[in-house]
Amino acid sequence: LKNFKGILIVVANPLDVLTYFYQKYTGLPRNRVIGTGTFLDSARLREVIGNKLNLEPKSVHANVVGEHGDSSVVIWSGATIGGIPIRQWDGWKLEYEAEIEEEVRSAAQEIIKRKGATNHAIGLVTATLLNWILRGERRIVTLSTVLESDSDFGDVAMSAPVMISEGGIERTIKFNASAKERAAVHRSAEIISKAITSAKGA
Questions:
Q1: Quick check: pTM over 0.90?
Q2: What is the C-alpha separation between 31 and 167, in angstroms, rounded?
Q3: Element (H or E) spanning 60, and its range?
Q4: So which residues are the catalytic ones?
Q5: Residue 116 confidence (pLDDT) above 60
Q6: CB of 9 closer than 8 Å to CB of 130
C-alpha cells in the first residue's frame, strides 16, 4: 500500500482493534486510517438527549469516547446545550444520565432484535463521513484513531474527538473530562489494549 493515496475507513468489528492493526499493518499515516468508532453512538446520544428535553438534537453537543463497545464513556462534564453546560440546563436531572447511557448502549441490541442487523444506521454514518471528507468539510466528530505515542491512554486505537478534512484526521482534540470520566476512559483503553495483545498472540 505504499502508493496508496487514499483514506482507509474501518467499519467492521472489533472496530478499535481492527483500526489499530490496519494502521500498523499498512504503515499508512495515523490520520489516514479511520474507524467509524463512536460516531454513531454520539449521534444517538444527542438524539436521546434532544428527545428527553424536547430539543433539536443539533442544539446538543455531547460526545461518547473510548471503546466502540460496552466500556464507552459519555463525557457529561463537557456536554452543552446552546453553550450552557447540560448540568446547568433548566429541567436537567442527574438521574437522566444513567438512563440515557443505557438507552444509547442498548440501541444496537434493540435494532438487531427488531430487524436482525444494524447495517442501515452505520451505512448512513459511513456515507455521511465520506461526504464530509470528499467535500473537505472540517468537522469535529468522534472517530477511532491510533493515538499518538505520548497519549495518556497508551498505544491503542479508540474514539476521541477529531477534526476531519479532505486529508483524513487533521488533528485529535484533547477533551476535558472529570476525574471520574477520565478514569473510565483509561479503563476503556485498557480493555482495548488487552484485546490488541490477545490478537497479537493468536
A1: yes
A2: 8
A3: strand 60-61
A4: 68
A5: no
A6: yes
